[in-house]
Amino acid sequence: MPVVNPRVDLRAPVPPWDRLGAVHLVAIGGAGMSAVARLLLGRGVTVSGSDAADSPTLAGLREAGATVHVGHDAAHLAGVDTVVVSSAIREDNPELAAARAGGLRVLHRSQALASLMAGSRGVAVAGANGKTTTTSMLTVALVHAGADPSYAGGGEIPQLGSNAAVGAGEAFVVEADESDGTFLVYRPEVGVVTTVQPDHLDFYGTPEAVDAAYVEFAATVREGGVLVACLDDPGARRLAEGERAAGRQVVTYGADPVADLRLIHTTPEGLGTRSPFTWRGSEHTLVLQVPGDHNVRNAAAAFLAATVGLGQDPDAVLAGLAAFTGVRRRFEVRGSVDGVTVVDDYAHNPAKVAAVVSTARGVVERAGHGRVLVVFQPHLYSRTRDFAEGFAAALAPAHHVVLLDVYGAREAPMPGVSSALVGDPLRDLPGERLVEVGLTAPVAVATLAEAARPGDLVLTVGAGDVTALGAPLLDALRDRHGRESG
Question: What would be the CATH architecture of the domain defined by 332-485?
Fold first, then answer.
């Protein structure tokens, strides 16, 4: 069965950006929506927007030339031709309801991005895990190689100062979100699939439907284009094999001996890595400043997209990847106090959480001392219910785990679903660790600040507001250090 989103016609053509007229974005302050706004402004489009509360993001958009309102009101649509919304916007939002009643063009955020990509050499990066980092790595590598791409990602790239920008080059790199099926709208020249794993079952229903959606995504790659896929992930491997059998151009990467780009081994170097690999009959070396085997694979995907997909010079791309310093909320070091380092990460499914926790465990083990302390906030009741044991296994390498209550986001609470669904099986797993369930954010901060010792890594993990705990954790560590020093 083809993917169906009742709110978006995933197969409808979208007009190019220069035919959108004046554009209004509902909830313009969100990461994805603000990226679209910046791109529209960069193209010279008249942009307005609204959000529920003021924020530094809104201030930045005003400074860039957008008219931004706090609060939602139909009156904000005066003079508007096109309204852009995300899946999070309800149909009863006064601006969306007025747009539909008035016959205005309504586009999903992904459709607006597809409109902006018109005429470019599009690269769409998809996957259950790694797509934000891969998008960012590819963007930095292309910038370093002089390709000057346009880009839109799900996280800010600190060394570029934004999550989106209009470039003068042919390439346009987007992070393609599979959560609601809207990754099918881009029609890219290069499609990248990092992983195919069950997630967003609140939308898809079954793992088989998720697999089928990625097959549809691969079919959206333009004729003559290329699909880049990871052979180390079983789902992406099945996809790659199926697409090759169908006669499409596929290039693969991974540690598997049959991969087109074969990763030989990885040696940690500080918080980074050095990884020799073979490609096209010769050996090269991939050097990164960010940790983890998962990031080596992300970089391999970016390398193939840039070289095979876009024809960039391999040495220039490798140099750009070596210059990459990370993405906001992806193993982002927030600071260190008295030998305790606080790291923030957006991980919100079991595979992502496992990558973050295992990477942190590897860092402290190579240092020869220290522990991994994690405060994790489950995201969505349905995801917590469906993957509780997977989250428990992902958190198991940590020495101390604090579980906040579930961050419901767009979902109402579900009976019997709480962070205890993760904590109970975690306690039963082999190994010694302290597990604390249902702590409030202030208590979690105080608990971890008192427990941490020099050499420890403290991780704040999740897609909700757990990211806000980094600063108070550092403050609490400073306070403790001051007391102990005094």
Answer: Alpha-Beta Complex (3.90)
